[in-house]
Design a protein that fits this description.
By secondary structure, the protein is mainly alpha-helical. Helices cover about 75% and strands about 0% of the residues.
């Protein structure tokens, strides 16, 4: 709230009026940037001087915030109103036509001097005479007569036209001015004015629009009602606005006895913000309708001038020659006159709209906001109606031109009018707001789908909503699918998934390098590493595929590992790595003779991998092992025994006796026994994996049995070589 208060104070929103307010000599809500338009209401007050008066307490941040919002809404509203009224009056007054008169006349005179030469006229007439002779020879007498008459008309009318090409259009009594005056006169007559003066009516347009769209709405918005009904309050309001002093306006309302208006100035409310929004929206619609009509009028005038310039070519040469060139002159003459006629209809619309709306405002001054609200809703359909009317006028010109062309060519006119020519090619159609917007949208759509736009913006469909983010997502997905993880995606679940997959793939490739190529041993090692990293067997098989392992090798590597883990879970051996090594050895032995080569290789490799892992995880002696290999206890622990009971008999006959004897030995000696067995078993397993034989298998079985006997005997104690 303090920030809002500071902004309001700096912007000058608090006006003088009480001892706790800030005073300004001139209201900052005036719009000096639009003073050049010279738009005044019917009382002579410039709209650029209009103010929205509020007196806010500097100690009340809520009031200050409301006043600041009202000031912003008011400034926006006034910019729209002033711009709209100025454009409407400027187009209706034809002031812009005076700007174009000299340059366009110079262009027309230059074109006439370059084209309308005796040689050009003689050549064109000779070509036209050839067509007449051809029609006579072929027996088309009627067509020859029509062509002779057309050439005579072009010659007679062209002489006067080429002397002053644009006089018929741009002069003070030309087609454009006459069309405007007739339209305004008709509109005024329909509004009850029996003796309308078009010039004075156009001059009053700005004042009428200013009263209807600015003066009365602003008074209702700011003061709660129209204060012009009271002569004293009207004068006070006008003088205060002319001086652009908010404090003077508040004091003037108090002195003229309008306490309601004075209270509204001192107590701005949130409700006024709602009123401002209604005014801003619907007054914009009403003014846009006027601007739409003004643009249509401007384009009709511009099109008429364009056809007048183009007709120079027709009168200088093309009108004498039968066919398309003669039709070109006809189309331009019809267009020149037809566009001026269209201005009559459009000015009837615009003038009637302004005058009738002014009558409605005057009849219900206290309901000005209601008129704006209802009128805005109704005129949404008015845009469509005016657009359709304009299309019908253009189509009518096209049909007239086509009928005249058909008469000159001696053929029936088409029932549906012209399919080409002035229909879609007219400048009025191409530059109309609706057509221009549609063309712009089509161009934007074509540009949006163009490969050049994709290269320029670095993404497909650059104008589409979310295009940049979609491209970013596609790029990141592409990088992640390639296994790359851009830094900005490191925290996403997909990045974590990709990093995990990258680790799995790296493990598979490392196994290939570590075991000299793609083979069963590398597959078993990769399977172990990937599962250790947290992946599952499906992840492992995918990584093996990336490392180019054959499908059968991948399948049996996963199968051998799964069988080993399942068998180890059912083994009574307590130490997990030993249980897996024992289970892998049993499975390798069971696949001999009946399993396929790939299956046997997978189980042999899994046995080697499990034995190596058993050896790698077995605790080593911490101190020196000198003399352990010849120690009686070591020799007895590593001796061969046929059964588990034979092993127990060597250590007292029971588990308890064996545990007591083992407990008397040092920890390093117990570790020496366990590590020696693990080392020997790993060595035999790797030899067997490389060159399977019954001898190596039997030796491995013997080592496995020794290790399992020790584990079983010492299970549940803390003195085993692996589990202590």
């Amino acid at each position: 709230m303090l920030a809002l208060l500071a902004a309001w104070t700096v912007s000058g929103g608090a006006a003088a009026g009480r001892t706790d307010t800030v005073a300004y000599a001139r209201s900052p809500s005036t719009i000096d940037g639009l003073a050049w338009t010279g738009i005044k209401d019917s009382y002579g007050v410039p709209l650029s001087n209009y103010i929205f008066a509020t007196e806010t307490n500097v100690l009340d941040p809520e009031e200050a915030a409301v006043a600041m919002v009202l000031g912003l809404l008011f400034a926006t509203f006034m910019v729209i109103v002033i711009s709209g009224i100025w454009l409407t009056g400027f187009v209706a007054s034809f002031g812009w036509l005076a700007w174009l008169d000299k340059p366009l006349t110079a262009v027309a005179d230059s074109l006439t001097g370059a084209i309308a030469t005796p040689l050009m006229l003689t050549s064109a007439a000779a070509i036209g005479a050839f067509f007449v002779a051809w029609f006579v020879v072929r027996g088309y007498t009627a067509k020859a007569v029509v062509q002779v008459v057309a050439m005579l008309i072009v010659a007679v009318a062209g002489a006067g036209y080429l002397a002053h090409p644009l006089a018929a259009v741009l002069s003070s009594d030309g087609l454009l001015s006459q069309g405007r005056d007739v339209g305004i006169a008709v509109a005024a007559g329909l509004n009850g004015n029996s003796t309308p003066d078009p010039q004075s009516i156009v001059a009053e347009f700005n004042g009428t629009l200013a009263d209807n769209f600015a003066r009365r709405p602003v008074q209702v918005w700011n003061l709660g009602h129209v204060v012009d009904d009271s002569p004293r309050c009207r004068a006070a309001w006008s003088s205060a606005v002319l001086a652009a002093e908010e404090s003077r306006l508040a004091e003037g309302m108090r002195q003229c006895g309008d306490t309601l208006a004075h209270d509204r100035i001192q107590n701005p409310s949130i409700g006024q913000i709602g009123t401002g929004l209604v005014l801003l929206i619907f007054a914009t619609i009403l003014l846009l309708f006027l601007e739409y009509l003004s643009i249509k009028i401007f384009l009709a005038a511009l099109s008429s001038v364009f056809h007048a310039i183009a007709a120079i070519v027709g009168f200088a040469a093309g009108g004498f020659i039968y066919g398309p060139t003669q039709a070109f002159l006809v189309r331009n003459l019809v267009g020149m006159v037809g566009d001026a006629g269209s201005m009559v209809v459009l000015f009837v619309f615009e003038g009637g709209y302004i005058l009738v709306l002014g009558s409605v405002f005057r009849a219900a001054p206290e309901s000005g906001l209601a008129v704006i609200f209802v009128g805005g809703i109704v005129l949404i359909a008015g845009f469509v109606l005016v657009h359709r009317l304009d299309l019908h006028l253009i189509g009518g010109q096209s049909r007239i031109a086509e009928k005249i062309r058909a008469v000159l060519e001696g053929r029936p006119a088409p029932a549906g009018g012209a399919s080409t020519g002035m229909g879609q090619a007219t400048i009025r159609q191409w530059l109309s707001p609706g057509h221009a917007m549609g063309t712009a949208l089509r161009f934007a759509a074509d540009f949006n789908g163009n490969p050049v736009a994709s290269w320029v913006f670095g993404r497909p469909n650059p104008l589409m909503y979310y295009s940049r983010r979609m491209q970013e997502m596609n790029y990141l997905n592409y990088e992640l699918l390639r296994g790359n993880v851009p830094p900005r995606t490191a925290g996403s679940w997909m990045a974590r998934l990709t990093l995990g997959k990258n680790a799995h793939d790296a493990a598979a490739r490392a196994a290939v390098e570590g075991f000299d190529g793609v083979n069963a041993r590398a597959a078993a090692a990769a399977m172990t590493t990937i599962l250790t990293l947290g992946g599952d067997r499906a992840d492992a098989m995918g990584a093996l595929a990336v490392a180019r392992f054959p499908p059968a090798m991948r399948r049996w590597a996963a199968e051998a590992h799964a069988r080993t883990v399942q068998s180890a879970d059912e083994n009574p051996v307590q130490y997990g790595p030993l249980a897996q090594a024992a289970a892998a050895l049993d499975l390798a032995e069971s696949t001999r003779g009946w399993g396929g080569a790939v299956e046997q290789a997978a189980h042999n490799a899994q046995f080697a991998e499990s034995a190596v892992m058993f050896h790698r995880l077995t605790p080593r002696p911490l101190g020196s092992t000198r003399g352990f290999e010849k120690d009686p206890f070591t020799s007895k622990a590593l001796a061969d025994y046929n059964t588990y009971q034979d092993f127990l008999n060597a250590f007292g006959g029971t588990k308890e006796g064996a545990a007591r004897e083992w407990a008397t030995q040092s920890e390093d000696k117990r570790r020496y026994v366990g590590y020696t067995l693990a080392e020997r078993l790993a060595s035999k397993a790797q030899q067997y994996e490389r060159t399977p034989s019954s001898t190596l298998l039997a030796e491995a079985m013997d080592l496995k049995n020794k290790a399992t006997y020790i584990d079983l005997a010492l299970s549940g104690t803390n003195i085993g070589p692996w589990t202590n």
